[in-house]
Amino acid sequence: MTMHKQDTLLILDMHAVDTLLGMDEVSEAVTEAFVLHSRAQGRVFPVIREPLHMGGVFGIKAGDVASQDLLGYKAAGFWPGNRQQGGEPHQATVMLFDPATGRPYCLLDGNAITTLRTGAAGGLGLARLARQDSASLALFGAGVQAAIQLRFALRTLPHLKRVRYMTFDGKPDAAFERRFDGQVDLRHAVDGDAAVAESDVVITATPGAKVLFRAESVRPGTHVTAVGSDTKGKRELPEGLLPRARVYVDDAAQSRQIGELQWAPDTACVEIGAVLDGAQAGRSEDPAEITVFDMTGIALQDLTVARMLYRRASQEGVGVVIPWPWRSVG
């Protein structure tokens, strides 16, 4: 059987994706995703997010951009038992399709995509919503997502000098500290409320199992980036904080469904894409303003980044191409 040019599937595993990903390129792709969403030029389909019998969570985020022939989904979730096997609890896979035929043309490891596109979103939020003279940061978490959020914070906030981080077990994480050795004054803290009260920026990057600090600990002028609430029932931010703040989200409906706004669904909010597109204001000149960016992650982020990777891989000959017949044989 003669294979048609389209009868193939490009596979980009974790190593291929890692070689192609760059922070600047991902930030550009994520900006495009948010702006497309804000202009209603890209669709985000209803999120599937369900618990599994072994204690994990599985979900699907999908969407399309009709004008760009972009269609795909990310299947992802959290499997806590993976740690005992030396694996990463977060697992994700992205698939791109030809919208005219339904033919899949690229399968990508989604872990690095998820990590970097979420970090890029946090960085975009810091650039527009945090005080640019911010010098201190309180970070909840010391995992993969906490690390990428801190990397983007160091790139985005030129005056950032002091970081205090909290861990789930209350113990210092030497490996986490080594990753930022010489870049910033990074120290472990046990008292989260005290760390928040002394910080210009707060980033919560935990599994979202509990409220992490008291609302009254947040001082005027603080920016809060909330990463961990992405499923019904999850929460990191305390009651009473959102009414004091100007709230930004990646997707309003999704934030009310699975993000921090599920706990305060009547809270007024602004989508970050409208800020990036110039249709809405970011941080005001009021030095006492508190801002919150609730990030649930939207499918368009994954798809624009995956498309960028597909194009680069095709140009550079990266990845594995396998036959993928899709036409009837007759």
From TrEMBL:
The keyword Lyase applies. GO terms for molecular function: ornithine cyclodeaminase activity. The keyword Lyase applies. Its EC number is 4.3.1.12. One of its GO terms (cellular component) is cytoplasm. Keywords: Lyase. This is Ornithine cyclodeaminase. It comes from Bordetella ansorpii.
